[in-house]
Amino acid sequence: MPVDTRNKTILLVEDNRGDIRLIQEALRSTAAQCKVVIARDGMEAMAYLRQDGEYADAVRPDIILLDLNLPKKDGREVLAEIKADPSLKHIPIIVLSTSRNEEDISKSYDLHVNCYISKSRNLTQLFKIVQGIEEFWLETATLPPESR
């Protein structure tokens, strides 16, 4: 079976600058080569995924790291839109949120999130979480083929 040697692309949908910086740093500290694209709100994330306007040449992400509490369009709405779109629904989505609210967790799984992870405020733990996501989703799991 051929090995996929191209760099993977992660769409990080996050509005907190500190979390963006920490997640990028955690991803840089791993062996896997990946490109991180940032969307700071739900509207920007959907424009990127639909290749609208300035994102006409956007690369389809291999995985999406999605915060729930976003401006303009929250993560729950983004998740619902992605999973309802036949051309996007197979992209694995990992909710990475500070919310430990059972309703948020249940709703995310009802909307077919692939994984829900609560962000840690502990720097070491956050690095372990992000590195674990990268190791599993980009190095171990077989991702769906691009279906455009």
Give a quick rundown of the structure.
By secondary structure, the protein is α/β, with parallel strands linked by helices. It has one domain: Response regulator (Rossmann fold). It has helices at residues 17-28, 42-49, 75-84, 102-110, 123-140; strands spanning 8-13, 34-39, 63-66, 93-97, 115-118.
Notable traits:
5 helices, globular, 148 residues, phosphoprotein, CheY-like_superfamily, alpha/beta, Response regulator containing a CheY-like receiver domain and a GGDEF domain, TCS_response_regulator
Strand and helix layout:
Blueprint: E1 8-13, H1 17-28, E2 34-39, H2 42-49, E3 63-66, H3 75-84, E4 93-97, H4 102-110, E5 115-118, H5 123-140
Parallel strand pairs: 1-2, 1-3, 3-4, 4-5
Helix pairs in contact: 1-5, 2-3
Count the domains. Answer: 1
Q: Estimate percent helicity.
A: 25-40%
Give the N-to-C terminal Cα separation. Answer: 23 Å
Broad structural category? alpha/beta
Q: Residue ranges: pLDDT <50 for 5 or more in a row?
A: none
Count all strands and give the number: 5
CATH superfamily: Response regulator
CATH architecture annotation:
3-Layer(aba) Sandwich
- Approximate strand percentage: 15-25%
Rounded to an integer in angstroms, the radius of gyration calculated over CA atoms is: 14 Å
Class in CATH? Alpha Beta
The shape, in one word, is: globular
User: In CATH terms, what is the fold-level topology?
Assistant: Rossmann fold
Order the strands across the largest sheet as they lie in space: 2-1-3-4-5
Order of helices and strands: EHEHEHEHEH
Mean pLDDT, to the nearest integer, reads 87
Protein name: Response regulator containing a CheY-like receiver domain and a GGDEF domain
Keywords: Phosphoprotein
Domain Response regulatory: 9-134
Modified residues (4-aspartylphosphate): 67
